[in-house]
Amino acid sequence: MNASVTSPIGGTATGEPGTLAPRPPAPVAVLEWLLTGASETDILAALRARYPEADPAETLASVRDTLTAEGQPDALALRGWLLLSYRELYRRMLEVGDFDGARKVLKNISETGL
Predict the structure, then answer these.
(1) Can you spell out the DSSP letters for 55-74?
(2) What is the pLDDT of residues 11-47, one digit of tens each?
(3) What are the backbone dihedrals phi and psi of residue 88, each rounded to the nearest 5 degrees, phi first?
(4) What local confidence, expressed as pLDDT, does residue 63 receive?
(5) What is the pTM of this model?
(6) N or C, fewer C-beta in 10 Å, the chain?
């Protein structure tokens, strides 16, 4: 039997109950845990349990550096990403017949001046 189980601190275990999928690098796991709302206490406990070889201070510093860099995107690159995202949302809404949602996407673009 193939099951998918969400772990208590984020990530997904796939396969037989009690088995885990290959683990990502520690900083990637910490980012995933942060994005799922895990507390610092939970993250440190999970790091000790799942990544005993990882230095928690170094791992958290790496995550902090990643978040800092991601928080300073190039304005034109960000604008391009937003427009591509809007286009994809618009396309999917038309595809499923959500014409009101597609109209809202267009309205949002025109109001924000993208």
Answers:
(1) -HHHHHHHHHHHHHHHTS--
(2) 443 344 455 667 899 999 999 999 999 999 999 999 9
(3) -65, -40
(4) 95
(5) 0.54
(6) N
Count of Cβ atoms closer than 10 Å to residue 32 Cβ = 15
State the pLDDT confidence band at 61, using cuts at 50, 70 and 90: very high
* Domain limits, the chain: 24-72, 75-112
In three state form, how does the secondary structure of 31-48 look? HHHHHCCCCHHHHHHHHH
Distance CA 88, CA 104 (A): 13
- Residue 35: both structure tokens together: 């994005």
Half-sphere exposure of 108 (CA within 13 A, CB side): 13
Q: Any idea which residue has 């796939």 for tokens?
A: 14
